[in-house]
Amino acid sequence: MNEKNTDTLQQELMSTNNLDRFLTENDASFRDIPLQDAIQRIFDEKGMSKAQLAKQSGISEVYLHQLFSGCRFPSRNRLLCVCFGLGASVEDAQDLLRQARHAPLYTRGRRDAIILYGLSHSMTLFQINDKLFTEKLDTLC
């Protein structure tokens, strides 16, 4: 069976009279995996060490270990630092932001546009923070 898109799920949810049946019938469509598992998947694909990730994301190894174990929940900025450290794609970064219940990056926001550009052009965290600083915008970390 094909996965239902978000609009279809929302239409069904709004029109149903039986929430329990909706939840049961659409169980496979929900994306409720823990954030640390989603980050771990990308980390495993990249084949880097946690020391490399810490250096590239500007975050301590201790914090990263706590993040990977689920003991820490990152702010939006910290999660974006991890995304840059991982060399994540725009799609992966947006997915992680949604998974963490943070606002996705929005092209119409100047700061978010710079961050999106950086992700899509494989810029480093240092390069993005430098550009944000130059534009008098808040840096990521």
The level of helicity is 55-70%
Largest sheet data: none
What is the element string, with H for helices and E for strands?
Answer: HHHHHHHHH
Radius of gyration: 17 Å
Structural class designation: mainly alpha
Number of helices: 9
- Tell how many strands the DSSP assignment holds: 0
Cα-to-Cα separation, first versus last residue: 43 Å
- Which residue ranges are poorly predicted, with pLDDT under 50 across at least 5 consecutive positions? none
Q: In what range is the share of β-strand residues? A: under 5%
| Large-scale geometry | globular
Q: What's the overall average pLDDT, rounded? A: 94
What can you tell me about this protein's structure?
19% of the residues are buried. Helix 4 (50-57) crosses helix 6 (76-86). The chain has helices spanning 6-15, 19-25, 35-46, 50-57, 61-69, 76-86, 90-99, 110-120, 125-134. It is built from 9 helices and no strands. The protein is mostly helical and 141 residues long.
In short:
62% of the residues lie in helices and 0% in strands. The chain is mainly alpha-helical. The radius of gyration is 17 Å and the shape is globular.
Topology (elements, then pairings):
Blueprint: H1 6-15, H2 19-25, H3 35-46, H4 50-57, H5 61-69, H6 76-86, H7 90-99, H8 110-120, H9 125-134
